[in-house]
Amino acid sequence: MSIDVDVAIIGAGAVGLAVAAELARQQKGVFVLEKNQTFGLETSSRNSEVIHAGIYYPEGSLKARFCVEGNSLLYDFCEKYGVDHRRLGKIIVATDSGEVEKLEEFLELGRRNGVTDLRLISRNEVRHTEPNVEAVAGMLSPSTGILDAHALMRALYGLARERGADFVFETEVVGLEKVGTGYDVEIMDREGTSSIRAGIVINSAGLNSDRVAGLAGIDLTQAGYRLHYCKGEYFSLNSPEG
Ligand SMILES: Cc1cc2nc3c(=O)[nH]c(=O)nc-3n(C[C@H](O)[C@H](O)[C@H](O)COP(=O)(O)OP(=O)(O)OC[C@H]3O[C@@H](n4cnc5c(N)ncnc54)[C@H](O)[C@@H]3O)c2cc1C
């Protein structure tokens, strides 16, 4: 049996949930297909939970624009829906005089991106704010903060459900075929494979989004959609007293 839906959203991470909550406010027939047993089990629950200000992104890029706009929207959302968060600010430090020029470049870039509250601070101000950090200068970003990412996703999931979006878990999208103005979406669940017909497909499959785009026949290299993974490391610091 084939089901018809207006919008199929692939992936229930922070992005898919936010899209579902907003679209469901505007229209019926929003379906979210998620391969895991519930929402938010991948990158959206394995990150630094920072509300970024929008300092580093290339001027004029969508990332720069959306990050600056999103910063205040996210604080408003957290306030309105009771998501734990703190606007604690961030200091980017220059550990030697050679790095001060880089700080000044970030200050200029951030300002051009529309981050209006950045300012350079002295060694003493850095030390006063964070005595455990040794730096020759710093740049203070007051609108950077932190939030509880899982609480954010719970709020978005609740809103999307309340507004009529349907969530189908343990259901992986394994094929996409353009048919007329919509798509045949091939899905795999515990019962095997079947398909649904969707008027619009939204790809919010996170680290799998290039493969999902590939399923729709998009040339990943030509479109610039191929993902390149980078490895990073987190350090956790304790004070000498433990
Ligand atoms: C180490 C690290 C730190 C970060 N720190 C921050 C930070 O401090 N602040 C910040 O704003 N951002 C941060 N980010 C980025 C942020 O976490 C991501 O941009 C965000 O979580 C992406 O959300 P998403 O919904 O696109 O992806 P995901 O959370 O990965 O969700 C994608 C979903 O799609 C599902 N899916 C994939 N393929 C299919 C399929 N074929 N069928 C059905 N479902 C599918 C997956 O199961 C998953 O649930 C960080 C990222 C990393 C890696």
TrEMBL record:
Cofactor: FAD
InterPro entries tied to this protein: FAD-dep_OxRdtase (IPR006076), FAD/NAD-bd_sf (IPR036188)
Domain FAD dependent oxidoreductase: 6-239
Record has Oxidoreductase as a keyword: yes
Key words, A-Z: FAD, Flavoprotein, Oxidoreductase
Family as reported in the entry's similarity comment: Belongs to the L2HGDH family.
The protein's name in its UniProt record: FAD dependent oxidoreductase domain-containing protein
